[in-house]
Each structure stands twice: as structure tokens, then as C-alpha cells.
Amino acid sequence: MSWFKREDNEIVNDSERTVRTEGLWVRCPKCREIIFKADLEANLHVCPKCGYHFRIGARARIDALLEPGYELVDLDLRSTDPLEFTDLRPYKTRLEEARRKTGLNDAIINAVGNLGPIPVVLSVMEYSFIGGSMGSVVGETIARAVDRSLETRSPLIIISASGGARMMEGIASLMQLAKVSAGLARMDDERIPYISVMTDPTTGGVTASFAMLGDLNIAEPGALIGFAGPRVIEQTIRQKLPEGFQRSEFLLEHGFLDAIVDRKEMKHYLIDTLGWMNQ
Length: 279
Ligand SMILES: [Zn+2]
Hints:
By secondary structure, the protein is of the alpha/beta class. Helices cover 39% and strands 17% of the residues. Strand 5, helix 5 (136-152) and strand 6 (156-162) form a beta-alpha-beta unit. It is globular and about 45 Å long. It starts with 7 loop residues before the first helix and ends with a helix. The site of zinc ion has 8 residues, from loops.
């Protein structure tokens, strides 16, 4: 009977089965354990074996922090590609692809809602949108988050995940550093709390502006945080950099961060901290 015979096409079926099931599992890049995807999601994308923090999208972060009923705002801004920039592909094409992939107009989402009992303005960067780079839209969206905080006297939390300034917008991108820094200075004058949460990675112009300007600057474990990349620094200073340079733990040890907070503790940490900051 034919079903006793192992045909070549059955071997092919085996590999098809592997393809069908492998989407359900992920390998942790740190401890190399294979993790069931649903377990990882239930654990806020933190490896249950070793605590490695996987990157997650902006929407998942908002869901993890704010109470149901929050509102997404300032989502309508779109870059006009002022330089008509073309590198390997036109910037316009990259924007369209990123919009399709993420369902967002740019690399950031503003939300207003309650963090536990505290009304807050939350601004979260989306790394999967052109590396979370900051162009005119990201800068303007953060400026609007600042305005919302000032109007309502609610604390501001910005969660960064960014490769830095968006080179395709040239100087318009660099101008955002000054604009958002000026807005945050106004919050400082008004004594409204601003907490900066840095996640993997937070680099370049974002580190050089709002990410390091918090009343508290905190980070997730193991996040890459820096201005220039390690290779550029090594070539400039002609020295080998120490192990773990530009990771959260190194930065905390050297006084650049106030705390490292596990993703699963983040919500309670922020509620507690804003509680005493508001007193
Ligand atoms: Zn792990």
C-alpha cells in the first residue's frame, strides 16, 4: 500500500511542517533558549529565562502602561520630504513603505490617559518606522506633547527608541533638537515633571536632546544608549572601549542614568515616582 512507502515528497512535507511551526517560537539572543511566542508576549516580551528585553512596538508599550480608555492624539502629521531626498531609494518611497508596515504616519505616537490614578501625556517612539529616526514630524509631535502637558499640567513621559536624527531631512531634522529642548525647558520653569525612559536603542540626536533632559532619566536593562557609535569613538580617541560600554548598566554606574527599571516593573515605578514628584 502506498502509505507505507516514504516518498521524497513526504520529506518535503517535513520541512514544510517546520516552516509552519517555527513562527510560534523565538530564540532568545542572550541565553539562546527557545521560547514559546505566546509566553514571551504574556511576559511583555521579556525572556522568562534570562530577563533579556526584546524590542517592542509603541502601541504595545502604551497598552502596557495606560489604563483602558486612553486616547491616541497628534497622529495626522506627515513629512513633506522638504529636500526631495534620494539615497538608494527615494525618501518618499521609504516613508510610504514604513507607513504601510506600521500603520503610522511617522516614528512616534502621542497618547493621553491615566497611568494608574495619574493623568499623563505619553509620547512613545516606534523603532520599526525608519529606525525611530527623528525628523520634523517626530520633533513636532513631541513639541505637541509638551504643549499638552503644559496646558493640562500633567506629567510627560517620553519613551525613546531611536537611531537618532533623520538624515533624509537634513537641517530640518537637526532643528528638532533645539525645538524640543526649548519646550522641555518651559516644563522645567513650570515645574511639571518629565520622565525620560530610554529603551534599546537610544542614540544620536535623540540622546543629545530630550532623552537626557528628564527630571529623571531611566532605562530598560541592557539598552544601547549613546551619541556616536562605538566604532566612531574608537577611531576618534584611538582607544579600545571597555566591555558593555554604552549599555544601561555601564551608564548607570558612571552617573548618566538615575535608574534601570525592568519592563514589568515600569508601570509601578512610574506611578510611585510621579506620586512623590507631584507632592
Ligand atoms: Zn533569554
